[in-house]
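Researcher: I'd like a structural prediction for the single chain below. Treat it as a standalone chain; there are no partners to consider.
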Amino acid sequence: MRCWFLIGLALFLTGCRSSERIIARVDGITVTAKELQESLWQRYGSSTLRELVQQKLLEREAQKRGIVVTDSEVTQALKRYRLTDTQENRRKVRMDLLLEKLADAMVEVTETEAKRYYEQNKTLFQQPERVRLREITLESKENAKAIWEALRLRNGENFADLARHFSINPTTRQQGGDMGVIPVNDLHPKLQATVKQLKVGEFSRPIEVNGEWVILKLEARFPEEQKKFEQVREQVIAQLKQQKVWQLKLELPNKLLRQAKVQILDPTLKKDW
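Model: Treating it as a single chain, here is the predicted structure.
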């Protein structure tokens, strides 16, 4: 009995010393650890408690669904976000990953929703007019005119060879001037106007663009096309699901809190509940 009394007395005195410990002095005025604790409790106690309760509810929901976040995933996320590997950052990142996985598991996109979204946003699934081009870029008007004359002699059949030997564009030169398939609207305005006038197989006169001279050859033209729902179905579903996940991530902590039976036993913390 005496042993337990001494232990209790020691704990009591330690607690007193801890709470009454002076942590700051200002012109002879002291601030104790107890005063700091009481101030923090009054200012942040309620909001911190809410955050802790939401965290526990999220963890319980994840456990029900068999969702886990590994230490490796947290470490990778810290590197991805360029955050310092501290205990607090690991906690925050872990909860964010847990919330992401929960939302992803809880969200569904129906076929009806996907089709409605497609019909309401058809312009997002239009394939613009595209062209396949070759180009020869030259540093002067005189050189461009000489190359253009050489192209005329063989009706442009030597376009790729001339591009490889004389073009100053390092990106397309090795491919015989091949620019690949690109949307017409992505071209410089001067080139757009020229391409619209060309027929497949034709090449242009030299065009001055930003101090250089460009000769184009139109290899193929692909008209504007409206993609069908079947072509973009998976894309639409993925896009809608991501939108729903983002929304649920914002709503889920409060949603779980509203559904839970919460008892706040300390009256000083009830004001914000």
